[in-house]
Amino acid sequence: MSRLPTPRLLPVTMLGMAGLLALKAAKLAQIGLLVGASATVVPAAQAVESPAPAAPAKTAAPPPPPGSLSPAPAPAQPAAAPSHAVTPTAGADPKAAEPATVSDSEMALLQDLRQRRQELDARSQELEARGSVLAAAEKKLDARLAELQTLQKSLEALEASRQQTDDANWQGLVKVYEAMKPRDAAAIFNDLDQPVLLQVVDRMKAAKAAPVLAAMQPDKARTLTSKLAALRAGRNTPPGG
C-alpha cells in the first residue's frame, strides 16, 4: 500500500494572515491621519476647556512573522464630544458676571422716585376726573345757552308782535283825531294825559298836528312840544351814546 502525500496548509494560512494584517495596518494609518487633521481645525476657544486627557494613540504593530497568530486589533475609541459649557470670552471682565450691588443712597433714591411716580399718577387721575367734570358742566352750559337763545328769539318775536299790535291800535286812534276838527281835537288834548297825548301827537302827520297845537292852550302846547322833542331825541340817540 502506497503512503498519501501530506497537504501543505500551514504556509498558505500564514500567507493569508500576513495579507490581512497588512490591510488592517494600512487602515489604522489612514485613521491616524484623519484624527490628526481634525485636531488642527478645532477652534482655539475649545483650548480653554478642560476635556479629559485623550488616550495616547496606539501605533500600528508591525506584522507578526509568518507562522504566529496575532490578536484581533482593538476597536478605535470614539472621539470625546466637546463640552457645551459656556466659557468666558477672552478679555472679558470677570467682575461683570457678578450681581450689581445697590447702595443705601441709591435705594433711597429709587424709593423716592417710586413715591414721586405714585404721586404723579394720583395727580394725573385727579386731573382727568376734574376734566371729565368740567367737560360735563360745559356740555350742560352749552345746552342751557341754546335754550336761552331759543327763548330770547321767542321773546323777541312776541315783542315784535306786541309792538305791531300797539302800533295798529295807536294808528287807529290817531286816524280818529286826524279826522276831527282842529278846535275839537285841541279841546280834548288840553285835558288828555301827557303819556297818551305824546303817543298820539307823535304818530300824527305834521299837517294834521299843527292846527291842533295852534288851537290848544299855550302852556299845554309848550309842555307837549318840549316832551315831544325829548321823546324823538331819545329815540334817535343810539344805545350807549
Explain what you see.
- With 241 residues, the chain is an all-alpha fold.
- 65% of the residues lie in helices and 0% in strands.
- The protein contains 6 helices and no strands.
- Helix 3 (182-191) crosses helix 5 (206-215) and helix 4 (194-203) packs across helix 6.
- The termini are far apart.
- 5% of the residues are buried.
The level of helicity is 55-70%
Query: How many DSSP E strands?
Result: 0
Give the count of helical stretches.
Answer: 6
Largest sheet: none
Order of helices and strands: HHHHHH
SS-based class: mainly alpha
- How far from one another are the termini? 175 Å
Computed CA radius of gyration, to the nearest angstrom: 66 Å
Look at the structure and give the mean pLDDT: 74
Low-pLDDT windows of residues: 1-7, 41-53, 55-60, 66-73, 81-86
Task: Note the beta-strand portion.
Answer: under 5%
What form results from the Cα inertia axes?
A: rod-shaped
